[in-house]
Amino acid sequence: MIKLENVTKSYSTEVTALQDASFDVAKAEFVFLVGPSGSGKSTLLRLMNRQEKPEKGEVWVAGRNINDMPDAKVPHLRRNIGNIFQDYKLLANKTVFENVAFALEVIGRPKHVIRQQVPAVLDLVGLSGKQERFPHQLSGGEQQRVSIARAFVNRPLILLADEPTGNLDPTTGEGIMRLLDRINKTGTTVVMATHDQRIVNMMRKRVIQLDRGIIVRDQARGVYE
Amino acid sequence: MFSRLSYTFREMWASLRRNFTLTAAAIITAAVSLFILGLTLLVLRGFDNQLSQWSGGVELIVYVENDATPEQLQVVRDALESNPAVIDVDRLEYLDVDASLAEARRLFAGDPETLQLLTAENIPTQFKVVPRPDASAELLTEIASSYKERLPKVISVAFPSKQIDVLSTLRGVVQFVLYLITLILLFSAVLLIWNTIRTAMFARRREIEVMKLVGATNWFIRVPFMLEGLIQGLVGAVFASGGVLTANWYWTSTVQSFPPDSGFGAFVVTGNYPQWVVFWLIVLVMLVGAIGSGTAASKFLDV
Questions:
Q1: CATH, range B55-159
Q2: What is the pLDDT of residues B27-64, one digit of tens each?
Q3: Angle value at C-alpha B72, between B66 and B74, nearest 5 degrees
Q4: Which residues of B104-130 are buried (b: 16+ CB within 10 A; e: fewer)?
Q5: B160: Cβ contacts below 8 Å, ≥ 6 apart
Q6: Chain A within 8 Å of B212 (Cβ-Cβ)?
Q7: H helices then E strands: how many in chain A?
Q8: Distance between CA B104 and CA B257 in Å, rounded?
Q9: Which residues 126-185 of chain A have a CB within 8 Å of chain B?
Q10: B207 touching A, CB under 8 A?
Q11: Three-state secondary structure along B19-53?
Q12: Does B4 lie at the interface with A, CB-CB under 8 angstroms?
């Protein structure tokens, strides 16, 4: 589903965010990217949805080399990738329903599809009774669930999650991980950058560890270390 | 398709309301600059009307009585063509009754009393004379003054070279000053529209980031902002057009109340020209608004 071949990315002559990174992620796989701040986890995620382009190497997503992809095709690539963020990135002036519907609306889905898919995904993330609430009326965990619903409402092939439990307490974080695990079991590939040692150790999924832009470990059913 | 349209208009309207003061400033500046541009075009048209009988280098007009026979007209033509060193014979032009009437309608547009007196039966026909570039003014004056006495049916000979120069110079000055003011104001209007859109986009940068990440195309994001700029321009142009048409109507009715020999008759703009000016003002500013805001929007689309 995702393939990186000798990818190097730097932000300046002194800062190399990623150096000669290569790995494959299979369909429906769940992968943790771990490592200290500045190790290149977020850069990897940004390369996968074409927010960044590498200096060297190739990034393949769903069978396409996305480095060569014309800019006009990038929105279509992104419709197959859901993004989840540490700070949720919800729109404060929109209700839960509207925040999720927004993701379908801006890619031109008709109203009847929106009316059908949004309640279904809110039910999946356990927010069916809170459709009319605004983000500030929700807890952190609930806000992250809205963010996941928005990322998943279009049934993407891949979910990229950047520290999704970073702002949450351990119990709420575990709930979010159970939700991501359920989504993964529907066949969606999940790549998650995290610092959260407890969660990585609890999930026992594949772990790719980065250190100063270099992949230092790639372990199936790994732990944080 | 319908959901996209509904989204576009909803977002545009919300954005216009959110930035009301900036929007109002952009509309007012656009309206004022377009109003001045419209007036400039009308004033220049007035000058052109006044100068139209002297266009193409004509400096001397020989007016001939309406009932001159073809033979008498030929005598006048022969006399004019007998001075090839002074008169550019190839550019000698004769305006018959119909052509003279058409010109009179333009020249006396703001002087209906005089216009009413001019009919196909009494309007003089005219020979328009273009002097050679090296012909001296004294020689021309001498020839011109001799025509009236010795040629048949000649009513008068007009040779107002100094007045033409004054009018042409005045037209140039007016054109320069008004175009300069228009340009500055139009530039301000574009900057204001640009700034309004940038502010609107900055306020919504989080939303735009999300839109980009869920796969919205740049055009989908840009169009409501372009529409916003276009609407600002359009509203400004509608106010300006109303102002231009009202000013033209007021000027026309004022000139018509002047005495017949006031000399302002030709400065009136009639026919479809004012509507044509208004149409192009609207097209111009809508384009400027849409393109300006579309460009302003591009900065925030690099996610």
A1: 3.30.70.3040
A2: 888 888 888 888 888 888 888 777 766 666 667 788 88
A3: 110
A4: bebbbbbbeeebeebeeeebbbbbbbb
A5: none
A6: yes
A7: 7, 10
A8: 18
A9: 150-151, 154
A10: yes
A11: CHHHHHHHHHHHHHHHHHHHHHHHHHHHHHHHHHC
A12: yes
Distance of alpha carbon A104 from alpha carbon B197, whole angstroms? 25
Q: List CB contacts (< 8 A) between A102 and chain B.
A: 210-211, 214
* H helix or E strand, kind and range, residue B280: helix B273-298
Compute φ and ψ for A158, nearest 5 degrees. -130, 140
Other beta carbons within 10 Å of B82: 12
Which residues in chain B are closer than 8 Å to A106, comparing Cβ atoms? 7, 211, 214-216, 220-221
pTM for the full predicted model: 0.67
Give the residue carrying structure tokens 């980065």. A210
DSSP B166-177: HHHHHHHHHHHH
Higher pLDDT pick, B146 / B99: B99
- What's the whole-number average pLDDT of chain B? 81
Average pLDDT over residues B154-175: 78
User: Hey, where are the domains in chain B?
Assistant: 2-52+164-298, 55-159
Sheet of strand A158-162: strand arrangement: A81-85, A158-162, A189-194, A30-34, A206-211, A214-219
pLDDT (tens digit per residue) in A179-207: 999 999 999 999 999 988 999 999 899 99
Low pLDDT (below 70) residues in chain A:
none
- Dihedral angle of Cα B214, B215, B219, B225, to the nearest 10 degrees: 0
pLDDT at B55: 64
Q: By C-alpha distance, which of A144, A155, A152 is closest to A196?
A: A144
- Please write the tens of the pLDDT for every residue from B217-249: 888 888 888 888 888 889 999 999 999 999 988
Question: Which residue matches tokens 């965990």?
Answer: A141
Asked if A76 has any chain B CB less than 8 Å from its own CB, the reply is yes
- Using DSSP bridges, classify how beta strands A206-211 and A214-219 pair: parallel, antiparallel or unpaired: antiparallel
Buried-state track A77-89, b at ≥16 Cβ within 10 A, e below 16: bbbbbbbbbbebb
Rounded-to-5 percentages of helix, strand, coil across chain B:
75, 5, 20
* Angle subtended by helix axes B273-298 and B218-256, to nearest 10: 150
Tell which of B210, B211, B221, B298 to mutate to test the A interface (max A CBs under 10 Å). Answer: B210
Probe site for chain B from A99, A105, A117, A158 (most B CB atoms < 10 A): A105
Strand runs labelled E in chain B: 60-64, 93-95, 125-129, 154-158
Q: Cβ of B73: how many Cβ atoms within 10 Å?
A: 17
- pLDDT at position B58 is 67
For residue B84, which amino acid is it? P
Sign of CA dihedral B27, B31, B32, B33: positive
* Dihedral, A187, A188, A189, A195 alpha carbons, nearest 10: -120
d(CA B227, CA B217): 16
